[in-house]
Amino acid sequence: MATLLWLEGGACSGNTMSFLNAEEPTAVDLVTDFGIDVIWHPSLGMELGDQVQQILRECASGERQVDIFVYEGSVLMGPDGSGRYDMFANRPMKDWVAEIAPRAGVVVAVGDCSAWGGIPATPPNPTDAIGLQYLKGERGGFLGRDFTSALGLPVVNIPGCPAHPDWITQVVVALAAGRTADIALDDLQRPKTFFSSFTQTGCTRVQFFEYKQSTMDFGQGTRTGCLFYEFGCRGPMTHSPCNRILWNRQSSKTRAGHPCTGCTEPGYPHGDLMPGTIFKTAKVSGTVPKEVPTGTDHLTYMAHAAAAKIAAPQWSKEDMFVV
Amino acid sequence: MTSTMDLHVSPLGRVEGDLDVRVTLTDGVVTDAWTTAGMFRGFEMILKGKDPQAGLIVTPRICGICGGSHLYKAVYALDTAWKTHVPPNGTRIRNIAQICETLQSIPRYFYAIFAIDLTNKRYAKTPSYDEAVRRFAPFVGTAYEKGVTLSNKPVEVYAIFGGQWPHSSFMIPGGVMSAPTLSDVTRSISILEYWKNEWLEKEWLGGSIERWMENKTWEDILAWMNENEGHYNSDCGFFIRYALEVGLDTYGQGHGNFLSTGTYLDPELYQNPTIEGRNAALISRSGIYAGGGFHEFDQARVREDHTHSFYKGTGSHHPFDGVTDPIDPAQGKAQDKYSWAKSPRYDVPGVGYVPLEVGPLARQVIAGQADPAAHQDQDPLFLNIVNGVGPSVLTRVLARTHELAKYYTWARKWLDELDLHDKFYAKPVEHESGKGFGSTEAARGALSDWIVLENGKIENYQVITPTAWNVGPRDADQVVGPIEKAFLGTPVQNTADPVELGHVARSFDSCLVCTVHAYDGKTGKQLSKFVVGGM
C-alpha cells in the first residue's frame, strides 16, 4: 500500500487525461490491484472545498504520509513572486508545493510544465512559470538544485507534452513494488529505462532516414520519406520511447506524419515558437540541417548523407505504405 | 425568521482547473453566487509575435481535455486567414478526430467527474442509494470502472489519424498531416464497433443506438426507460430514475438562453473556408436561442467584458481587438474584480449584450431549429425538453449523453466516406497578413479563436473557451454569468458538504477545479468552522 497525492498547478490536465488512457495497468487497476491509495486528485477526488484544505494541511504537516507526490503543471511564481496567478484551496499553489514536497517519499514531475516549465514558460513567460527542479535546461527550479525528497531522491522527471500514460504508471508501480532503487535517472533526472533511446528508435521512417530520403509533403505525401530534412522533425535529437511504446496503443506522431516536436527535452518548444520555426527544418547554407542528429557533426553528417544518397535503392524513393 | 449566510467553496474539484464558488444562502437556498477562476497562464500573451502556426501547438495545451477541439478551431482560424483550399478528405479526418475526442469525453465526464457525487451520503436514505454506490463509487463502482477504462477506446482512433491523444497538432492549414491506408480505416471501424458493443449499447443504453435516436420528446424518454429491463437497468435508465428520485430535475436552471457556434464542417461545402461561409457549411448548426426565439450566429456580435476580471480597466472588446493585460488579483479585488475568466457576451438583435449558456444542451436546443439544409442535423428532443420540463442538472447531463448515439453514428458514417485515393492536404500560400476566425463545439461547448496576422507573425490571438462563456463573472451591467445564474435556487442541505453546488457546477463540465467557504450574511463575517485563511 502506497499513498499518492496528485496536484495540478499551471496545468491543462493533459497528463491526467493521458494517464486515464492507460491499460496494463489502468488507473483503476492501480487502486484496486496495486493498492495505491489516492489521497486526492483534482479530477478524481470525491472531496471538495474545506475537506480538500483539511487533507492538504494534513499532508503538509506530516500528519498524513504522502508516499508519492505527483505534480502536474508549472509552478506559477507571478505576479512579483506572490504566486497569485494560481490560487488553489485558498492560497497560492506554490505554497502548498513548498510544504508538501519535502515531506513526500518521492516527488514525481509529470509533463513538461512540471519538469521544465513547459509552454507557459515560453518567452515572455508572463506568469513566471517554472518547473519543480528545472527551468528549461537549467537545474534549480522551484525546489532548488539540492532538493531531495524524504527517500533521498531528487524530483523524478517524467516529461512529455503530455507524458505517455505507461511512463507514469510503470514508475508508480515500480515505486509501489519497492523498486525505487532500480529507477536509474539520467542527467536530466528522467528514468533511464524510458529516456535513453531516441524518439526515432522504432520509427517506421528510419529506413528513409538511413538513405536520406525526404518526405515531400504533408497529407498524401507523408506516407513515405523522413520528416527530419524538411519538416523540422526532432526524432534523431530527442530522447523518448514514443516509437517503442506506442501512443494509445496504436501509433506515434512520426508514424502519423507528424514531425516530432522534441517535447521530452527541456528546450521545448524549440525555437520558442518564433516565426519560421514551426514544422520547418532550420538550415545552414540552404541545404544542411542546422541541428544534426545527436552525436554527429556537420562534416560527418554531409559525408554520410552524400554516400547514403548514392546508396539509396529505388524502393526508398517510392511509397511503400500504399493505400 | 429568515436566515442568511454566505458559503465559499475552495476548491470545488472535478471541474478541471481551479474554481472557487461563493454563494449566499437564504433559508438553505442559494440567492446569490460568484464564481472565481483561480488560475492564469497567459497563453494569448505568449502567442503575440510568434509564428502564425504557433496556435496549433499552443492552444491544444490550454486544455488537455479538449485539445483536439482546440486544434480543430485553431486550424480553421488559419484556413480562413490564409484563404486555403482544404480537400474534402482533410475535413473528414478533422471531423472524425474531433468527434472521437468527444466520444471519449462523455463517459469519462459522466463517471469520473459527475456521477460519483450521486454516491454522496446526502442520498443515503433514498431508495436506490445502494444501487448508486454499487455502480458509481469511484474506482470500485462496477459501472465506473468500465465507463472510465473503455473511454480510452475512441481516442485510439484519434491516434491512428493524429499520432496520439491528447496533444497532437496534426491538423494544419490546407488539411491534415496524415494520409490513412486501408488498414488504418478498418482498424478504426473495429475499435469503434468494440466500444459501441462493449459499453455504449451493453452498459449505457441497454439496447440499440437506433432505438435511442427515435426519442423525440421527454415522454418518449420515459417510455424508452420503461420499455424493457435492458433500458430500465442500463446506466442511462438508472441515472434518469435516480436523478428524478433525488431531484436533479428541480434546480440548476440558469438563464435559459443558449449559444452554439456549431461544428463539423461539411467536407464538400467548406473546401475554401471563409468566415462568412461557415454557418451554411456546418453539420451541427450554429445559432442563438434567447427569449424563446432563434437567431443566426455572427462572430461580429461577440464581446468579452473584463469589468470584474483580473485585467486592467473595465469595459469590453471584440476579440479581434481583444486585450489581455493581467493585474495582481490582490489589486483586482479592491476594484471589485473576482475572476481570471472574462465575461463573454453576445449582442442578441433587439435584446442587447447578454450571457449565453454553451454546451451540449445549448447545441441540442439549437439542433431543434426548423429548416435545416440537407447536410445539417435536425433533432427536436431537447427543444421539447427545455420548453417542457425546463433546463436543470438532469437536462444538461442528459443532453451530453444523448450525443453519444448521434456522434457514434456520424463517426462511422464519416469513416465510410473517406476516399483513400484522394488528397488529404493542399499546400497553402502562407500570407503575411490576414484575419481569421475558427470555431467548434468542444464536448463542453462553443470554442473559438480570433487571429490577426501581420508581417508574417501573430499580432493578436484571442481564444474564448466554453468555460469562459459558462463560468465568467458578472459584466459591467452586473448581470451574472450562466453558472452563477444556475446556482440560484439551488437547495443546500449540508453547508459542510454542499454536494448540490457540485452537481450544478459539474453539470456544465467546465474545465476548472472548485472550493466552498461559509460567511454569515448579516455580519459579512466568515464562519470560521468552514474557512481557513481569508477571502
Structure write-up:
- The complex is a heterodimer of chains A (323) and B (535).
- Chain A has 323 residues and is α/β, with parallel strands linked by helices.
- Chain A is built from 9 helices and 13 strands.
- In chain A, the strands form 5 sheets. A 5-stranded parallel sheet of chain A has the order 2-1-3-7-11. A two-stranded antiparallel ribbon of chain A has the order 4-8.
- The longest helix of chain A has 14 residues, at 298-311.
- Chain A starts with a strand and ends in a 12-residue tail after the last helix.
- With 535 residues, chain B is α+β, with helices and mostly antiparallel strands.
- Helices cover 38% and strands 17% of the residues of chain B.
- In chain B, the strands form 6 sheets. Chain B has a 4-stranded antiparallel sheet with strand order 3-2-1-18. Chain B has a 4-stranded antiparallel sheet with strand order 12-11-13-14. Chain B has a 3-stranded antiparallel sheet with strand order 6-9-10, covered by helices on one side.
- In chain B, β4 and β5 form a beta hairpin.
- In chain B, α7 packs antiparallel against α8 (182-205) and α8 runs antiparallel to α17 (393-417).
- Mean pLDDT of chain B is 92; it is low at 513-535.
Largest interface comes to: A-B, 93 and 105 residues
What can be said about the biggest beta sheet of chain A?
5 strands, parallel
Strand content of chain A: 5-15%
Can you give the helix content of chain B as a percent range? Answer: 25-40%
How confident is the prediction overall: mean pLDDT of chain A?
95
Number of helical runs of chain B? 20
Radius of gyration of chain A: 21 Å
Main sheet of chain B? 4 strands, antiparallel
Give the DSSP E fraction of chain B (strand runs of 2 or more residues). Answer: 15-25%
Enumerate the spans of chain B where pLDDT stays under 50 for 5 or more consecutive residues. Answer: 513-535
Rg from alpha-carbon coordinates of chain B: 22 Å
Q: What are the low-pLDDT stretches of chain A, counting only 5+ consecutive residues below 50?
A: none
Which structural category fits the helices and strands of chain B?
alpha+beta
Look at the helices and sheets of chain A and give the structural class.
alpha/beta
Number of strands of chain A: 13
For the termini of chain A, the CA-CA separation is 50 Å
Looking at how many chains there are and whether they match, the oligomeric state comes to: heterodimer
N-to-C CA distance of chain B: 28 Å
Q: H/E series of chain A, N to C?
A: EHHEHEEEEHEHEEEEHHHEEH
pLDDT average of chain B, as an integer?
92
| Spatial strand sequence of the major β-sheet of chain A | 2-1-3-7-11
